[in-house]
Amino acid sequence: MTAQEGSQLDLQQYFPYRLARLAEQVSLAVAEVYSERFALTRQEWRVLAILGLRTEIATKEIGPLTTLDKMQVSRAVQGLQSRGIASRKHHPDDRRELIVALTPAGRALYRKIVPFALARETELLGVLTAEEVEVLDRAMHKLSAALS
């Protein structure tokens, strides 16, 4: 019998579950900023946030940066494009690939949302001391590196 056989697992104390649950709670708390005030989906917000830091980006590069799958990226880009927030064009070297960029209206929206998003982040982290925020950041980097 191995150490795992016959063991029990309390889901409420299981680290992967607790982390996933916390991530969902944080995501929902931040969603109040972009969903209620700006009528964006979670996926659209993630794509907008990525585009806000770039002039343009290939759609295939968005997924790994946002944890969105190919279909979610496609739908988010389509939603942003339909509202004049983003534009798409074919890659000059590969017509199968699309390049996405924010329109002037998209840039304005990004600039409008960012202060709200950063304020929400500050509010969420406000329950922690500065030292706890540093420890949390280091722990997240360490876990991420171990899983990469």
From TrEMBL:
Entry's transmembrane regions: none
Domain HTH marR-type, first and last residues per copy: 12-145
Keywords for this protein: DNA-binding, Transcription, Transcription regulation
Keyword DNA-binding: yes
Recorded superkingdom: Bacteria
Molecular function terms from GO: DNA binding; DNA-binding transcription factor activity
A Pfam match: MarR
Keyword presence, Manganese: no
The protein, known as: Transcriptional regulator
